[in-house]
Automatic annotation (TrEMBL):
Residues 1-24 form the signal peptide. This is Cysteine rich with EGF like domains 2. The lineage of its organism: Eukaryota, Metazoa, Chordata, Craniata, Vertebrata. PROSITE patterns: EGF_1 (PS00022), EGF_3 (PS50026), EGF_LAM_1 (PS01248). InterPro entries: EGF, Furin_repeat, Growth_fac_rcpt_cys_sf, LE_dom. Keywords: Disulfide bond, EGF-like domain, Signal. Gene3D superfamilies: Hormone Receptor, Insulin-like Growth Factor Receptor 1, Chain A, domain 2. Residues 136-178 form the EGF-like domain. It comes from Homo sapiens (Human). The keyword Acetylation does not apply. Disulfide bonds join 168-177. SUPFAM superfamilies: Growth factor receptor domain.
């Protein structure tokens, strides 16, 4: 259908007021984009690592290779493969950050070997190190080494977002995901680790693996001679 020109123009302000499309809501965060760029950069380093290497091991080759290893030529080759030409946002970010990447490549690589940490966390401040969250990269609940006791996901982990609270995996509950949900029992617990294991299907609660370990029978099962059947 073709709208008369005037009507089409009249629609324009309306279109601008429309809520963003669903895809826009899922737009990658600056941290995601930075991580993507770093992943591509690291891949580029792998891809160029064996280049210009004839296979022999002459002194000449060793010398040329070690020159190439940290050369601007290699950097350019890596940068070229970083963004699809159609990926506007990637190219925009690359253009804005090329100098940072070049400085890292030529001067800072040995001092800060982890590009993600140096670039996304320390320099652009769009991500946090693993196990930390939020604008100031605070430690997740349960500590940055093993957030949520290893039994859950820390909100905002690795990003500048979230509140550091735990979303526990199936079977676990509590602020640090150390407690067991109904239908699970604690099969190991010490200062640092807590492991919850599923009860037999006949138990609503239990203290062990079998139907003789039920505290209470699940709906549809009855207690008979000490077991839920
Ligand atoms: C707690 O249990 C885990 C898992 O079995 C074990 O690796 C760890 O060493 C234990 N820690 C202590 C303090 O006993």
């Amino acid at each position: 259908m073709r709208l008369p020109r005037r009507a089409a123009l009249g629609l324009l302000p309306l279109l601008l007021l429309l809520p963003p499309a669903p895809e826009a809501a899922k737009k990658p965060t600056p941290c995601h984009r930075c991580r993507g760029l770093v992943d591509k950069f690291n891949q580029g380093m792998v891809d160029t690592a064996k280049k210009n290497f004839g296979g022999g091991n002459t002194a000449w080759e060793e010398k040329t290779l070690s020159k190439y290893e940290s050369s601007e030529i290699r950097l350019l080759e890596i940068l070229e493969g970083l963004c699809e030409s159609s990926d506007f946002e990637c190219n925009q970010m690359l253009e804005a950050q090329e100098e940072h990447l070049e400085a890292w490549w030529l001067q800072l690589k040995s001092e800060y070997p982890d590009l993600f940490e140096w670039f996304c966390v320390k320099t652009l401040k769009v991500c946090c190190s693993p196990g930390t969250y939020g604008p100031d990269c605070l430690a997740c609940q349960g500590g940055s080494q093993r957030p949520c006791s290893g039994n859950g996901h820390c909100s905002g982990d690795g990003s500048r977002q979230g509140d550091g609270s735990c979303r526990c995996h199936m079977g676990y509950q509590g602020p640090l995901c150390t407690d067991c949900m109904d239908g699970y029992f604690s099969s190991l617990r010490n200062e640092t680790h807590s492991i919850c294991t599923a009860c037999d299907e006949s138990c609503k609660t239990c203290s062990g693996l079998t139907n003789r370990d039920c505290g209470e029978c699940e709906v549809g099962w009855v207690l008979d001679e000490g077991a839920c059947v």
